[in-house]
Design a protein that fits this description.
The chain has about 425 residues and is an alpha+beta fold. The chain is built from 14 helices and eleven strands. The chain has helices at about 70-75, 85-95, 120-130, 135-140, 145-150, 155-170, 190-200, 215-225, 270-285, 315-330, 335-355, 355-370, 380-385, 390-400; strands spanning about 25-30, 35-40, 45-55, 100-105, 110-115, 205-210, 245-250, 255-265, 290-295, 300-310, 405-410. It is globular, with a radius of gyration of 22 Å. InterPro entries: Metalloenz_LuxS/M16 (IPR011249), MPP/UQCRC_Complex (IPR050361), Pept_M16_N (IPR011765). This is Peptidase M16 N-terminal domain-containing protein.
Length: about 425
């Protein structure tokens, strides 16, 4: 759960209704002989949510596999080797299910929501949809959606990619979760199949059920699911944060958008540092009220920073300089009162998100696939946040402001260089 505390800190400040999850949260987890992780929690709600996550995001692509994670995500929902995709989607519709797929730098997640009385059928459909046959004609049919995705990327997504290129240079985390604008055509379907065969496997997979019986879920994926095993597991290539990098791209816009970030705790580190980074991001949001603060942890690194859009005029350079200087001096803003308020916001974020089954399932699945494979209940996370000291948060803020990276898009002549700030 800590891995998804906040993408943008302002969203974590929503008020929470009274929530019993802090005192009652039966989180169960087991590991099957195939290597697949199965976890579940029952919130006593009528709608069940299942998520199947694979370590198959863009960081796992080789130099010749750019865009494969995007192509694979868009192919989910097609035919499997045993069933027709259209038939499965009709069956999903018949039980009122909603199917959704996402992909980021770490994982590809396929999720489904449905009435909890249909848990067995839901698990059967989702496990089949998660093992597409990836035939040539199916990949050809998905090209239009890939082109549409690329054409409609938000400004934030484009700037975020520039930031990652600056922060991680040519290492795996610099690879985009999307196909490039000149990389949306047909590719050899056998190469996509090879990528899927190495990533959509049990040892790289986590299944999470919300409002689903754990024994039933474990039994199904032990006996009947067809997620393959892969005994020739490839080690994940590591990414190192470099810092002091800048990636700028001139655009036709009369405005400018930029993201500035420094190094932050990773998912593979101490859970207490993850909690401290979430608290630090809340404090940063108070300091940088005109910007959108984000904290994005990965398995071996992390980014804490801010995103800013502005009209391009004579005042833009000064505004950006001021924001960067405020972020660099974030450590000085961390005091007893600031930490106390930020802790409350972080706990509200954890407890309120825990009551949203679909988001909880995906979040837990990502956490299971993190290097530590630690699962924490909302009450555990809240207790962990309470144990943080001012120095814990200062340490994160100090590291984030020490070596900055910058990505900028638009009228970049109005964006100062980092060594000018």
């Amino acid at each position: 759960m800590l891995s998804r505390l906040s993408v943008r800190a302002q969203s974590s400040a929503a008020a929470a209704a009274p929530n019993t999850l802090a005192s009652a949260f039966d989180l169960r987890s087991s590991r099957l002989t195939s290597g697949l992780s199965v976890s579940s929690v029952d919130l006593n709600q009528p709608i069940a949510h299942l998520a199947i996550a694979f370590r198959a995001g863009s960081r796992h692509q080789s130099a010749t596999e750019a865009g494969f994670a995007h192509r694979l995500r868009n192919a989910l929902g097609g035919d499997s080797r045993r069933s027709k995709g259209l038939t499965m989607l009709w069956q999903a519709g018949a039980i009122g299910a909603n199917v959704h797929s996402t992909a980021d730098r770490e994982n590809i997640i396929l999720s489904m929501s449905f009435p909890r009385s249909h848990a067995s059928l839901g698990a059967s459909l989702l496990s089949e949809l998660a093992q597409p046959s990836l035939e040539a004609w199916e990949l050809e049919d998905s090209l239009d959606t890939i082109k549409s995705d690329v054409a409609h990327l938000s400004t934030y997504e484009r700037v975020s990619q520039l930031l990652h290129e600056a922060a991680y240079r040519n290492s795996p985390l610099a690879q985009s979760p999307f196909c490039g604008p000149h990389n949306t055509g047909s590719v050899d379907f056998r190469k996509i199949q090879d990528y899927a065969a190495s990533r959509l496997v049990a040892s790289e997979c986590a299944v999470v059920g919300v409002n689903v019986d754990h024994g039933e879920l474990q039994s199904f994926f032990s006996d009947r699911a067809f997620i393959q095993e892969n005994k020739n597991r490839k080690e994940q290539a590591s990414s190192t944060y470099h810092g002091h990098g800048e990636s700028r791209r001139e655009g036709c816009s009369s405005g400018v958008a930029l993201a500035v970030a420094g190094e932050a705790p990773s998912l593979g580190g101490d859970a207490k540092k993850l909690a401290a980074a979430a608290v630090a991001s809340s404090i940063a949001q108070e300091v940088l009220s005109s910007s959108s603060v984000f904290y994005q942890p990965y398995s071996d690194s992390g980014l804490l920073g801010f995103y800013l859009e502005s009209a391009a005029d004579g005042t833009t350079n000064g505004k950006i300089k001021q924001s960067i200087q405020q972020f660099k001096s974030l450590e000085s803003k961390v005091d007893e009162n600031a930490v106390k308020g930020a802790k409350a916001e972080a706990k509200i974020a954890v407890l309120s998100k825990a009551d949203q089954g679909a988001e909880l399932a995906s979040s837990l699945a990502s956490s299971v696939l993190s290097p530590s494979r630690d699962l924490h209940s909302p009450s555990d996370v809240a207790a962990l946040i309470d144990t943080l000291s001012v120095n814990d948060v200062k340490e994160v803020a100090r590291a984030a402001g020490a070596r900055l990276s910058l990505g900028a898009l638009g009228s970049i002549r109005h964006v100062p260089y980092l060594d000018e700030c």
